[in-house]
Specification:
InterPro entries: LRR_dom_sf (IPR032675). This is F-box domain-containing protein. It comes from Ephemerocybe angulata. The protein is α/β, with parallel strands linked by helices and 504 residues long. The chain has 16 helices and 24 strands. The strands form six sheets. It has a 14-stranded parallel sheet with strand order 3-4-5-6-7-8-9-13-15-16-17-18-21-23, covered by helices on one side. Strand 8, helix 10 and strand 9 form a beta-alpha-beta unit. It starts with a strand and ends with a strand. 30% of the residues are buried.
């Protein structure tokens, strides 16, 4: 593209490429990158110099005989140079639904092109692999070892050895096969060795894939031991997505004594449309956890808080609702478990995020008690207010024993996905109560005199919900809102005020 007699600056092209192409790495994205390179020599040179464009690959392998060029894939990812590399592989074995066996002679994981790629891929920041069953993982490892021997590679590289160069690993297992259960019973563990990663993301089969029935004795269950202790003990960060029974989760996590950051996507099991009520006598002792994220929590899964034994949590995120879709109405929870848990962490909790939850007065007292004196960062994302939370805080200041002030160390307040007609009046009144000021008229307009020391809050973020997939006309904020924003900014608060849109 020319501008007069000159081409676009390489830095401008680089910025355009980064805006136009997100980090996806699938077939469509790769085709777009190739099309950019065909525009002109300048565009091709700029694209090749942009390491980010080549740093991600997303692959699908459906059959063992599927044509796949490992040389082209390696050439693509190697163009990223020293940029952190991510590879996502979905091994989608296309057998009969009733046949959960996956022999190596027909398994998609034994695809020669994929095996060659995995043998020679450069050091990865992140590797994500989806398998039909754990047996597919073992088939891939066996094929890598066999191919290493044929190519006289020494030492041999395999995904179940400490030599595979990857920093973080994600495993998604679609189902547990009969062979998986036999292997775990015979060898002791389904996964005995993995690359020496400290961060593991694990997605296990759902109850639907396991074939649960009303009689638990008749269910196809999770193998008794998934990972060897040496795998679990090396982890400092774990992300688990599952709808297992509580005792199964406890059994999986009991070896994770060094976990510092735990994300648990724990969604509902159902049987004939009714949720399972779950209980267990086991406890999950995680003494080193400082960051805890609970996702897709509902009333029936809140019991997980009752078996978690964690101390000194500094960051807690709670996301409620269904996993399948964004619910129309935020989840409503009974607050008993939540209140007990948050109050037990109040002295160390510095960051709190609540997502997709209806706030009525009991829930408000549970998730945001006056005892959160250490709190520095509060995020309320798609929270439905049945009470005026800011008016409540104005009207009910904490006692002297509780600090005398709501969140005295709060530095950042974020409110996201607000309704376009959300009334921000009491929000600004709450902030004014924290640092009172007086507005006086003068010849130059209005002067603002602050009557107290600077407030701890230094950043305020407000974003608003889009009314539909098609944006409507942008709606201007009222003059009262903009005046309040100007006063806050004059007092040293950075305000990020999102746009509002009307329905078309």
């Amino acid at each position: 593209m020319n501008t007069g007699n000159r081409t676009l600056n390489a830095d401008i092209l680089d910025s355009l490429f980064n805006i136009y192409l997100p980090d996806v790495g699938d077939v469509v994205s790769r085709r777009k990158i190739t099309e950019l390179c065909l525009v002109s020599k300048e565009w091709r040179d700029a694209a090749i110099l942009n390491s980010r464009l080549w740093s991600r690959l997303k692959l699908e392998i459906r059959t063992k005989s599927q044509p796949f060029s490992s040389k082209k894939a390696l050439a693509w990812i190697e163009r990223s140079g020293g940029y952190p590399k991510t590879v996502e592989v979905a091994i989608l074995c296309c057998g009969k639904e009733s046949d959960d066996r996956c022999p190596s002679d027909s398994c998609s994981a034994s695809n020669l092109g994929l095996v060659e790629f995995m043998l020679h891929v450069p050091s990865l920041h992140h590797l994500s692999i989806e398998f039909k069953s754990a047996q597919c993982f073992k088939n891939l490892c066996a094929s890598m070892k066999h191919q290493s021997e044929l190519a006289s590679l020494s030492p041999a590289r395999s995904l179940d050895s400490p030599l595979f160069p990857v920093t973080t690993l994600a495993l998604k297992i679609v189902q547990f096969s009969i062979e998986d259960h036999k292997s775990a019973a015979h060898d002791g563990f389904m996964f005995d060795t993995l690359p020496p990663v400290s961060y593991l993301r694990l997605e296990l089969p759902t109850s639907k894939d396991l074939g649960h029935t009303r009689n638990r004795q008749e269910t196809a269950t999770v193998p008794s031991k998934l990972f060897s202790p040496r795998i679990l003990q090396s982890l400092t960060r774990l992300s688990l997505r599952s709808d297992l029974f509580l005792d199964q989760i406890a059994q999986l996590l009991e070896g994770c004594s060094n976990i510092e950051d735990l994300s648990l996507s724990y969604f509902l099991q159902t049987c004939f449309g009714q949720p399972y009520r779950q209980s267990t006598d086991k406890e999950i002792k995680l003494p080193k956890v400082r960051v805890l994220r609970l996702k897709h929590i509902a009333e029936e899964t809140m019991d997980v808080l009752g078996i978690l034994r964690v101390h000194d949590i500094s960051r807690f995120e709670l996301s409620c609702g269904k996993i399948s879709s964004r619910t129309e109405n935020p989840e409503v929870l009974r607050p008993t478990r939540l209140k007990t848990f948050i109050q037990s962490q109040a002295s160390t909790l510095r960051s709190l995020r609540i997502h997709n939850l209806t706030i009525d007065e009991p829930v408000l007292q549970a998730v945001l008690p006056a005892s959160l004196q250490a709190l520095e960062h509060l995020v309320l994302d798609r929270v439905g207010f049945k009470v005026d939370v800011f008016q409540h805080w104005i009207d009910t200041p904490p006692t002297e024993e509780e600090g005398g002030k709501w969140f005295p160390n709060l530095k950042t307040l974020e409110l996201h996905d607000l309704d376009t007609d959300y009334n921000m009046g009491t929000l600004f009144s709450f902030l004014r109560a924290r640092r009172p000021y007086r507005v006086e008229s003068s010849q130059d307009g209005q002067d603002v005199t602050f009557l107290g020391p600077p407030d701890s809050i230094k950043r305020l973020v407000l974003t608003f919900r889009l009314p539909s997939l098609k944006w409507g006309e942008r709606q201007a904020h009222s003059e009262e809102v903009m005046e309040a924003v100007r006063i806050l900014e004059r007092g040293g608060v950075v305000v990020e005020l999102g746009s509002k849109y009307l329905k078309r």
